[in-house]
Amino acid sequence: MEVKINQSWKAHLADEFSQKYFEELTEFVKKEYKEGTVYPAPKNIFRAFDLCPFEKVKVVILGQDPYHGPRQANGLAFAVDEGVTIPPSLQNIFKEVESDTGMPCVASAKKGDLTRWAEQGVLLLNATLTVRAHNAGSHQGRGWELFTDAVIRALSEQRENLVFILWGNYAKAKGAHIDRSKHLVLEATHPSPFSAASGFFGCKHFSKVNEYLIEHGEIPIDWL
């Protein structure tokens, strides 16, 4: 099956694209786009992979579903396009960046498009890559989770010294596929307003990521 995804990922995930579950997932997603409104736009389904090739991944931040409101989802977990109101979870992520680094985010960094992170090696990966408009979780259980589990396994097995950031119980469950003897795993509550004060604020994940990357000879991420 021909899948429009960055060539570096295609090489590592080729076996998944020929699996029965992926064929069924593809048919389901095509039908959903044909019959109603689905996010993100089809061209952005694999945008996280296109902006962050397999060999360039340094950090993986796991989300759950794409945003299901108009103009929000852009293919990167937690991100929105420039000009779109920044969602509460992303506002809290920016607050933690500022608190952790001790530096204010410059005005441009307040924009919700996290392309600048992805291009530095941060894979902003949702567990489910599509969603029906105004219907959170509507594409769960259709095969995306199997695919993104395979993504995590491939990174865990074939790369070394990556940082996996797991916010919330859903992301933590995906951590079962990570070899923690080879990689750093950082966990906290979800940055949602409902849970951020219970462990996300003060987690200092952004400085911990850079400390680890520097220790292993990598260029740190410019979160600002």
UniProtKB/TrEMBL annotation:
Localization terms from the record: Cytoplasm
Enzyme Commission number(s) from the entry: 3.2.2.27
Keyword list, A-Z: Cytoplasm, DNA damage, DNA repair, Hydrolase
GO biological process: base-excision repair, AP site formation via deaminated base removal
Annotated catalysed reactions: Hydrolyzes single-stranded DNA or mismatched double-stranded DNA and polynucleotides, releasing free uracil
UniProt-listed PROSITE patterns: U_DNA_GLYCOSYLASE
Function text: Excises uracil residues from the DNA which can arise as a result of misincorporation of dUMP residues by DNA polymerase or due to deamination of cytosine.
Protein name per the record: Uracil-DNA glycosylase
